[in-house]
């Protein structure tokens, strides 16, 4: 690493990760461009791991935040009522819940997605009086203990240092091949008193798995999962932390299946600006919390409420934003399919939805990492995912310009060619 990074090497914990993949000191950003201290520009296909769906320093949000700060608006409020929270709830009700016919209570948890997952699991267990939870292969739900128990990746699980209990792992859609409906196994195990699987409080699932390798659950699979859980009084939790807020096209990734989950976890891009914010959506009958039973010092981030409201009002009042994402999605899918077709010897698999896509290569599981490294050298930030980091993961801002998207894809092509040449 360069001398500019010496202080991080000297003083920051060994747990640091992304700085190793993208070794430079970033100084400022706008839209889909990051700028280093040295003035070098980088095109961003990473978007803060899905936090910056509306791009860096979106001026619509910056303006709203500055105005709020200049008038002395409340910044920290625990779970007290504030004008910023009130305005966000009203906007969320008007622009997200009511148009989709959804009736959810909103629980504001601690600032990370893992906090939302922890709360969802806790209230599901309280509401049902049961402890077991069904989770799926390659799931990622967070790294605090309850959320980590539902996470599949051994790299993260081994860091816990304790036994991770009360979760039964079953195969996600497609895990056993395209011709196998993995819900046959779930239904059999739930209905067989000899299976050893206790009736769960909840099933937690991502409609599109992000960290697990951009695995997309089919519409029939999600619809059947909803039916299986509803018939047995099992709560269905949809983890929309990375795949939601427009990332896969619609506001929620589960919308395509036409289902209504019992609980939904939301974080990452919900604040719009990158400020920490998480919430759980609960059907009213699931909201069995006693006052103060699940708290958190930073569950009232009023600056996040301000930018979150601005995001909803500026991007979700009509269909123009979603239509734009669909156009960019088609461009991305077409280009990735062309790259795969140009290299049949590598056996690339393209999968994803919206602007959440993966280019997977099982034939050479180190290839995605090499492409990411070479792309960074060429001015593109793009990460990998999957159990073996075998998937090149495309998460550009939903507001990215078409020419920026094409330029980034051109860098991917160059980097792939260089990786093959090496």
From TrEMBL:
It is an enzyme of class 2 (transferase). Pathway: Amine and polyamine biosynthesis; ectoine biosynthesis; L-ectoine from L-aspartate 4-semialdehyde: step 1/3. InterPro entries: Aminotrans_3 (IPR005814), Aminotrans_3_PPA_site (IPR049704), Dat (IPR004637), Ectoine_EctB (IPR012773), PyrdxlP-dep_Trfase (IPR015424), PyrdxlP-dep_Trfase_major (IPR015421), PyrdxlP-dep_Trfase_small (IPR015422). Its EC number is 2.6.1.76. The keyword Transferase applies. Keywords: Aminotransferase, Pyridoxal phosphate, Transferase. Its cofactor is pyridoxal 5'-phosphate. GO terms for molecular function: diaminobutyrate-2-oxoglutarate transaminase activity; diaminobutyrate-pyruvate transaminase activity; pyridoxal phosphate binding. One of its GO terms (biological process) is ectoine biosynthetic process. Belongs to the class-III pyridoxal-phosphate-dependent aminotransferase family. This is Diaminobutyrate--2-oxoglutarate transaminase. The lineage of its organism: Bacteria, Bacillati, Actinomycetota, Actinomycetes, Micrococcales.
């Amino acid at each position: 690493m360069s001398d500019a990074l010496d202080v991080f090497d000297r003083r920051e914990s060994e747990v640091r990760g992304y700085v190793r993949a993208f070794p430079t000191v970033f100084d400022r950003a706008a839209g889909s461009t990051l700028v280093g201290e040295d003035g070098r520009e980088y095109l961003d296909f990473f978007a803060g791991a899905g936090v910056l769906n509306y791009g860096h320093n979106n001026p619509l949000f910056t303006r709203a935040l500055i105005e709020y700060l200049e008038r002395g608006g409340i910044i920290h409020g625990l779970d007290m009522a504030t004008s910023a929270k009130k305005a966000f709830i009203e906007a969320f009700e008007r622009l997200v819940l009511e148009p989709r016919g959804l009736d959810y209570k909103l629980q504001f948890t601690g600032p990370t997605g893992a906090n939302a997952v922890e709360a969802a699991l806790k209230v599901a267990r309280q509401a049902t009086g049961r402890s077991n939870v069904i989770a799926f292969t390659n799931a990622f739900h967070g790294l605090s203990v309850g959320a980590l128990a539902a996470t599949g990746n051994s790299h993260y699980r081994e860091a816990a240092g304790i036994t991770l209990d009360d979760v039964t792992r079953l195969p996600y859609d497609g895990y056993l091949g395209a011709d196998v409906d993995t819900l046959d196994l779930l239904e059999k195990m739930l209905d067989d008193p000899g299976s050893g699987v206790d009736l769960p409080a909840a099933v937690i699932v991502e409609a599109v798995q992000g960290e697990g390798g951009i695995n997309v659950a089919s519409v029939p699979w999600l619809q059947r999962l909803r039916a299986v859980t509803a018939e047995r009084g099992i709560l269905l939790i949809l983890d929309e932390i990375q795949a939601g807020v427009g990332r896969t096209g619609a506001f929620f990734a589960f919308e395509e299946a036409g289902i209504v989950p019992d609980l939904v976890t939301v974080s990452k891009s919900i604040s719009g600006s990158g400020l920490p914010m998480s919430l759980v959506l609960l059907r009213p009958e699931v909201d069995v919390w006693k006052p103060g039973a699940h708290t958190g010092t930073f569950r009232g981030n009023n600056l996040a409420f301000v930018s979150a409201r601005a995001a909803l009002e500026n991007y979700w009042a009509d269909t123009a934003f979603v239509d734009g994402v669909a156009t960019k999605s088609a461009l991305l899918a077409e280009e990735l399919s062309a790259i795969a077709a140009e290299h049949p010897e590598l056996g690339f698999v393209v999968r994803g939805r919206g602007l959440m896509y993966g280019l997977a290569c099982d034939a050479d599981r180190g290839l995605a990492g090499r492409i990411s490294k070479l792309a960074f050298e060429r001015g593109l930030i793009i990460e990998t995912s999957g159990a073996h980091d075998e998937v090149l993961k495309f998460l550009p801002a939903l507001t990215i310009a078409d020419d920026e998207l094409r330029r980034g894809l051109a860098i991917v092509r160059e980097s792939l060619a260089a990786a093959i040449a090496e």
